Amino acid sequence: MHNYFMQNAFMTAMHERLIWARKEAGYESARDAAAALGITESTYMGHENGFRGFKSSAEVYARKFKVSLEWLMTGRGAPNKGRVLTAKAIGYVGAGAEILPFDGHSPGTLEEVEIPPGVPADAVLVIVRGDSMYPRYFENELLFYVRRGDDPREHIGKECVVALEDGRMLVKILRRGVKGLFNLESWNAPLIEAVALQWAAPVLARVNKSKL
Questions:
Q1: What's the rounded Cα separation, in Å, for the pair 59 and 33?
Q2: pLDDT band, very low/low/confident/very high, at 204 (cuts 50, 70, 90)
Q3: Hey, CA dihedral for 2, 8, 9, 12, is it positive or negative?
Q4: CA atoms lying within 13 Å on the CB side of residue 27
Q5: I want to staple 69 with a disulfide (CB 3.0 to 4.6 A). Which of 54, 62, 127, 202 is the partner?
């Protein structure tokens, strides 16, 4: 976590630690955090502003933002001491770089793994299946990403998880298309041209599952 030891001296109040934890978890605004928590923005803002105590909600916040409850309430220790940050796997990616979501009944599927250094706490991942993406990716590699809802045009030239308007999810290199549309480039599949996207999220890290 960035600049934790430098900032820790200034986070003497519980609500200051809450703000820091929320931002580190990837929620840019209190509104985003409140929506994810299922509470009203005014209630959550009261906690962040220090107007209301939130000891009764501290465990929920600590779990959601993946920080130590003791640290959040008292400031003692490190924010993630004794806690392992994990990300959930949402599906497999294989031939054509299309993501096949888990159906919830597949035996032996990987549910969650430890998040590698530098990857945000709200990351999710897909698992490479088969060798159709070789030599770029190998079977059982884990690809981590975070969906932020930002403009796909910000990620032109990057390798991304993308959601198409027809509901498909793919791992592709994002290229600029015609008339505001996008081209999707692959290592071992034909170019997909002139498609509209719901969203795009850059691949932030790749980890060999066998090394976990």
A1: 15
A2: very high
A3: positive
A4: 20
A5: 62
> 58-65 and 14-24 helices cross at what angle (nearest 10)?
30
Domain ranges in the chain are: 4-74, 86-211
Cβ density class 4-42: b for 16+ within 10 Å, e for less: eeeeeeebeebbebbbbbbebbbbeebebbbebbeeeee
- What is the pLDDT averaged over residues 192-205? 94
Q: Would you say domain 86-211 falls under CATH 3.40.250.10?
A: no
Nearest to 155 by CA among 187, 200, 196, 194: 200
Residue 143, by phi and psi: left (phi above 0), alpha (psi -120 to 50) or beta?
A: beta
Q: What is the mean pLDDT of residues 190-205?
A: 94
**Mapping DSSP to helix (H, G, I), strand (E, B) and coil, where does residue 99 land?**
strand
The first and second tokens of residue 39, run together, are 């509470």
Beta-bridged to residue 26, according to DSSP, are none
Whether the per-residue pLDDT at 100 is higher than 70: the answer is: yes
Tens digit of each residue's pLDDT (9 = 90 or more) over 13-26: 899 999 989 988 88
Residue 4 pLDDT more than 50? no
Q: Which CATH class is domain 4-74?
A: mainly alpha
Q: Is the pLDDT of residue 80 over 90?
A: no
Residue type, 46: G
